[in-house]
Amino acid sequence: MELTYADYLALEKLLDLQVPRSDPAEHDEILFIVIHQTYELWFKQLLHELDKVEEDLESNQLYGAIHTIKRMRMVMKTLVGQLDILETMTPLSFVSFRDRLETASGFQSYQFRELEFRLGSKRESMVSFHPEGTPGHEKVLAAFQRPTIIDHIYLFLEKNGAAIPDDLLNRDVTLPSAADERVQEEILRLYKERPDISILFELLTDFDEGLQEWRYRHVKLAERTIGDKLGTAGSLGVEFLKKSLFKPIFPDLWAIRCKM
Fold it and tell me: Cα 205 to the chain's mean position, in Å?
């Protein structure tokens, strides 16, 4: 039997995964499920691309890293755009099926937690949202304990003549990444001396800006939908989400703007 489009994409399984819990099914619950399942697929893709970026940086393949970061930037733009679709759901529409979520919460997205950790936004307290025995626990824990993309960038910069201090090259990778003036001086120098590497810096900044935009849009979506209510599963809702706003992944790339 010849391979078909439906077989290759496992469409029958895929299209059976959208199962509303409201009975009779509320119209917008399908939209809510589709959007969030799509987010999880894009998170999977971002983690896949992040593997490639880290490999490229480790092997000093600048243009490979540039190509992949470009793709990651476009995925992030798509994530932001999907919020426009979700915002067509009114607060009353969401309330009509919100109680069916019971203890399910976006805070339990282990793929997004993996992504956050691997991008350097590490908070040990967030591991507790994925306790032992829950889906994704081992992946989240592994992401918390492994080097971040920042650590790979440090090594890449050192291979390209940057003086990266030993305390950063050998830092505790379970700690969140932070700005460092010594790194900023080297980045600024490379901006002026290596226009090829400056392309990578700008794409990393683009991706960072896209993630911050997605966080902001996510907060405003939650605020216009549930106001100051607690999130599902007792999560802190909008006020918790606001704490993550405008925190860059690559603070050194933002800090040097006033020095150019």
Answer: 14
Q: Is 42 a domain residue?
A: yes
Residue 159 lies in a domain: no
What's the one-letter identity of residue 186? E
The one-letter amino acid code at 79 reads L
Query: 83-86 contacts: CB < 8 A, separation 24 or more?
Result: 83/214, 83/217, 83/218, 83/221, 85/31, 85/35, 86/31, 86/32, 86/35, 86/221
108-136 pLDDT per residue, tens: 889 999 999 999 999 888 888 888 988 89
Please state, in angstroms and rounded to a whole number, the distance separating the CA atoms of residues 80 and 35.
12
Distance CA 70, CA 73 (A): 5
CATH number for 40: 1.20.58.480
201 half-sphere exposure, CB direction, 13 A CA radius: 24
